[in-house]
Amino acid sequence: MERKSYITETERTKCRRVADAFAELYEESDIVVLDAGRYGFVELQYFRAKSGFNSNTVFDDSIELFEELWENWMDVQLMKTAEGTPMAEMDYEDIFKCLPEEKQIELVEKRKFFASEAGIDLDR
Length: 124
Description:
The termini are far apart. The chain has 5 helices and 3 strands, in the order H-H-E-E-E-H-H-H. It is α+β, with helices and mostly antiparallel strands. Helix 1 (9-21) runs parallel beside helix 3 (62-82). The longest helix has 21 residues, at 62-82. The protein is flat. The mean pLDDT is 94. Strand 2 (41-48) and strand 3 (52-59) form a beta hairpin. The chain has helices at 9-21, 23-28, 62-82, 92-98, 101-118, and strands at residues 31-35, 41-48, 52-59.
């Protein structure tokens, strides 16, 4: 019986670069991305010691993985910024709007950094 692969070798290489580009996210949160071989890449979130991860998503497309990790990275940054302030009760979009313009620009520019590290063309 032939074993089916759910990700191309080209996408595996691209996804590996994306996963590696977001290494700092894994240090700041309970999110990790693992190479699941022929199945693609798996994003695991919300770890609990006795029950494991509460969420898992499989990716076989580097652009989709990039967008997911970018959104998660931004959410973590906004949560850290809002922690211990009245902004903690706001949703992420409102927290972002409350930030000084310089901080907003700094956060948005980080997307370009991640894209460059991952070899992703944001203009596609």
